[in-house]
Amino acid sequence: MFKKILIANRGEIACRVMKTAKKMGIRTVAVYSEADKDSMHVLMADEAVCIGPAASKESYLVIDKIIDACKATGAEAVHPGYGFLSENEEFSRRLEDNGVIFIGPKHYSVAAMGDKIASKKLAQEARVNTIPGYNAEIVDSAQAVEIAKGIGYPVMIKASAGGGGKGLRVAFNDKEAFEGFEACRNEARNSFGDDRVFIEKFVEGPHHIEIQVIADSFGNTVYLLERECSIQRRHQKVLEEAPSPFIDDSIRKAMGEQAVALAKAVNYQSAGTVEFVVGSDKSFYFLEMNTRLQVEHPVTEMITGVDLVELMIRVAAGETLPFTQDDIKPNGWAIECRINAEDPFRGFLPSVGRLVKYRPPETAEGQVRVDTGVFEGGEISMYYDSMIAKLICHGATRDQAISRMRDALNAFVIRGIDSNIPFQAALMQNPRFLSGVFTTAFIAEEYPSGFVATDVVHDDPGLLAALAAFGRRRYIDRAVQVSGQMPGHQRKVGSEWVVQMEGKDYPVVVTPIPGGYSVTHGADRYDLVSDWKFGELVFRGTCNGTPICLQLERIGLLYRVVHFGKQVKATVMTANAARMLALMPKKLPPDLSKFLLSPMPGLLREVSVAAGQQVSAGEKLAVIEAMKMENVLKAELDCKVKKVVASPGESLSVDQVIIEFE
């Protein structure tokens, strides 16, 4: 077994690999960029080596620097995690040439599966189901149209070297095929330096199902069941679960055996994932093979009881698999929510900055797991991807796993930046998701206009008002205990209060009960019992005898309540104060319609207009870069530029003025 390994990655996956390595008694080496010098993975490692500036292309993607770090520290092997160099054939080969073991597949397997056209041909030779299509090089748009007509619409036009949704279009007619081919080829050339494009049949009613495989160097290959990955937004996975609620045992077995056949065809060693698209008729077709550990690997670990990282390390060290296919039996259900630094109410724009508060939910063996690479007080950088953590919940049934996920999301505290927790919480309430009947079009169909605040509807707003009243009354009861009060002049606490929340008044009556308060609103009564104290962000207790978990905090004169993704800020006052407040004039918000504001923190890459310029609706105004993504800001109306306030190269904060209009 290895004595020391280097993890050529950062963030949560670097920390995840280190946990297993430490469990195995293996020393770890972290590599880090200048922006990551205080990161969790650096603090967790036994040794750490700085490999360059913040930009990935100058640090985490530089093969020579990783190899130099191995030589300097004596690391015998490298685990690549996912992303960065994890599927880079040259990286695997050069490590091998330098006497360092790559904890992953051999370079020839990476090469065979890295090219989507070549991998599809290999899959056909291995008798793996493949989608009808045209896999040779396509010369121009006219040829693309003829091929599409021959296959039959709809078709998918896809870059051979594509990934992450880039270089991909679906065409339903000749015009869309013609335009889609050119767009895909241009995107592929710009993103991957490879403009080859192929066309295949677009499967209707599709599910994205992937099979986890693990193979050793002695010819033993096993599939570890499947993962359902159909909940995607713009071809990026949002949450995953295992097993799939859609496929049955016979389909599972057939897909698993084909995945094993493909792995053996390329002499695969290590963990890998074979992705399939499954149609509404349960026909399934090979998509691609990911020759690395997947982001969503924990759901497989939760239902099989295996540690995939440990298996990867042991296989790389020359050990055999400790089990056979017959030993793999599913145990319960697991769901993973990706917790990202993005604002779901602003089109999921990246959110960067300081984690003022970061309190993941409590973990419980076999029930709740949190894989993370950040800590309270740390910074979410604009240079890397938006993932903060992965929240994984397991249950004996799918319903129990969902219930535990709801509670865990309720208890996940993040302050200082925005996160997609409200969106994940909304998914956990969505009837269609709960039914298990959905496709890859789920998010586009359920949220056609994007995710907005009105999509997060609490089924009992009276409960939120009652909780705000609970917080206020506990504060008052603490305040009246102050010493030195004059006899006969102590404050008398009344029972009638008004909670003002989202423009509506909720008259409530609050009376003490053992361990808490009984709050009534009209015909509804909420008996709330909890030992919650000020300064605590998570409220745990009971409501009418039923356990409840949510977030409750006092912010100045307001009380913030967060439950099932719904967040409200409530004012709680006496009935008399509410009557007085109703007489006060309303303060109108400022008019910001004449300003272009930055919707996110980021680097202003480009300002496309100048003072005095007339601008048409839809015209590009500026480009902001954040978390490896370029975000183009366009004019919503015809207008004239009065003044350009911000300059290219400037770091912007949220709502900072970029351009002023006349």
UniProtKB/TrEMBL annotation:
Q: Per the entry, which co-factors are needed?
A: biotin
**Keyword entries, A-Z:** ATP-binding, Biotin, Ligase, Lipid degradation, Lipid metabolism, Magnesium, Manganese, Metal-binding, Nucleotide-binding, Transit peptide
Which GO MF terms does the UniProt record name? Answer: ATP binding; metal ion binding; propionyl-CoA carboxylase activity
Please give the SMART domains that the UniProt record associates with this protein: Biotin_carb_C (SM00878), GARS_A (SM01209)
Residues forming the Biotin carboxylation domain are: 1-448
Q: Does the keyword Ligase apply?
A: yes
Q: Where is the ATP-grasp domain?
A: 120-317
One matching Pfam family, short form? PCC_BT
Alphabetical list of InterPro entries matching this protein: Acetyl_CoA_COase_biotin_COase, ATP-grasp, BC-like_N, Biotin_BS, Biotin_carboxylase_complex, Biotin_carboxylation_dom, Biotin_COase_C, Biotin_lipoyl
Q: Where is the Lipoyl-binding domain?
A: 583-662
SUPFAM superfamilies found in the cross-reference section: Glutathione synthetase ATP-binding domain-like, PreATP-grasp domain, Rudiment single hybrid motif, Single hybrid motif
- For whether the record's keyword set contains Cell membrane, the answer is no
The record's Gene Ontology biological-process terms are: lipid catabolic process; malonyl-CoA biosynthetic process
Pathway, according to UniProt?
Metabolic intermediate metabolism; propanoyl-CoA degradation; succinyl-CoA from propanoyl-CoA: step 1/3
Group of enzyme by EC: ligase
Q: Which reaction does it catalyse?
A: propanoyl-CoA + hydrogencarbonate + ATP = (S)-methylmalonyl-CoA + ADP + phosphate + H(+)
- Which E.C. number(s) belong to this protein? 6.4.1.3
Q: Which NCBIfam families match?
A: accC, PRK08591.1
> Can you say what this protein is called?
Biotin carboxylase
Q: Which organism is it from?
A: Candidatus Accumulibacter cognatus
Q: What is the lineage of its organism?
A: Bacteria, Pseudomonadati, Pseudomonadota, Betaproteobacteria, Candidatus Accumulibacter
